[in-house]
Description:
This protein folds into two domains: 11-321, Thiamin diphosphate (ThDP)-binding fold, Pyr/PP domains (Rossmann fold), CATH 3.40.50; 326-372, no CATH class. It is built from twelve helices and seven strands. It has helices at 11-15, 20-45, 59-66, 83-88, 93-101, 134-149, 167-178, 226-242, 271-276, 282-292, 298-321, 364-371, and strands spanning 75-77, 155-160, 183-189, 192-193, 196-197, 218-222, 247-252. It has a five-stranded parallel beta sheet, sandwiched between helices. It has a two-stranded antiparallel ribbon with strand order 4-5. Strand 4 and strand 5 form a beta hairpin. Helix 2 (20-45) packs across helix 3 (59-66) and helix 3 runs parallel beside helix 8. It is globular and about 65 Å long. It starts with 10 loop residues before the first helix and ends with a helix. Thiamine diphosphate binds next to strand 2 and strand 4.
Amino acid sequence: MTVSRKPAASDLARSVDLTDEDLVAMYRTVALARAVDERMWILNRAGRIPFVISGQGHEGAQVGIAWPLTRRKDFIAPFYRSIATCLAFGMTAEDILMAQYAKATDPSSGGRQMPGHYGNAENNLLSLSSPVATQMLHAVGIALAAKIRKTGQVAMTSMGEGSSNQGDVHEGLNFAAIHKLPFILVIENNGYAISVPAARQVATPNVADRASGYGIPGVVVDGSDVLGCYRASRAAVERARRGDGPTLIEAKVIRLTAHSSDDQQTKYRPEQELAELRSHDALPRFRDELRAAGVLTDELETTIAAEIKAEVDAATDHSEAEPDPDPSTAMRWVFAEEWPSETPPPWGFGGGHGMEGHGRPDDASAAQGAAD
Ligand SMILES: Cc1ncc(C[n+]2csc(CCOP(=O)(O)OP(=O)(O)O)c2C)c(N)n1
Ligand SMILES: [Mg+2]
């Protein structure tokens, strides 16, 4: 008699059609994102990296929501807090720290981007950018291309509740809804846009309430409930793949840190509010849920914690040891490497920037002439 060995599935895993292994992998990603983030703050305070914008408090929602998408098939246009999204979609702790250090070998941009503007073409992760909500139009455009090409791909973008007030969001959602594009908008509502509280940003209790104005579903999820986020995202992905159009998911999350390493949130958040934040943190909540379900044991938890520490330590050591970019190559990968015809560009091929033959602006007057 042959006994088929199925992957272990606790009641909890079965309740979401996943295996215990999946749940452990999700937990590991949430915990890794937190560890990378905490390391970034230490490195910033130690003067090793210039700037941190943190995803602490968003990780559970990000992992739950990214999980149902298919890696290297679907696309995500993330935002500056999307560390856990990027880790869940194929980036590594090292990829993120290399970008934070802006090293020559940083896989995101070779140290060209602002710190925190990482991305990963191989994993269909667009470079995140700081002008808020600009990624909306990129993601809707990708969804339009997927529909025209009939690829079955889904495009997702995420941003904060403050960013949801940008005009691009209205234009993108309206267009995506009219054309039933395979698109998901995720609003990670952490209650603040820098120092401005949610009540001063949005007049309705939920950003998701706006979805009905576009004729699409708007779903509110508790961002500390990883599997609740997973379920909502899976439904949105299935709807998108069926050709039924976009979904707006609003995850109520918390911002555990200041807006960025250049901000001091004790100036505008009451002490009591800050003290209560930890009770809404997805990381301990998910850990307790997996322990209660028998998926996570003391032994496994200890092993995962040790593996994560080793991974973050190795990523830090590697990033520290890599060379900084050579200043003479500053313009490289900023403009096209090749000019696509034999006619020189209006600013000339020029020289003296270490970029000879790359079609770079050759001097200020030529650049000025081009701008005129
Ligand atoms: C177009 C644009 N306007 C203003 C800013 C300055 N800015 C940076 S972050 C931010 C607040 C965004 O808040 P929210 O969307 O809630 O995201 P959170 O930072 O809370 O995750 C603002 C106004 C910007 N980066 N881009
Ligand atoms: Mg916010």
